[in-house]
Amino acid sequence: MPQSPATTAPDRPSRRGVLKLLYACIWLSLVGAVGLGLGAVLRLISSGSGASQAQPVEFNQPGDLAVGQARDGGPVALVRDVQGYFALSLVCPHLGCRPAWHQDKGRFLCPCHGSMFAQDGGRISGPAPKGLSHVALKARGNKLVAYPNQTVDPATRLRA
Ligand code: FES
Question: In the chain, which ranges are E strands?
Answer without folding.
Answer: 57-59, 70-73, 76-81, 84-89, 100-102, 107-109, 116-117, 123-125, 134-140, 143-151
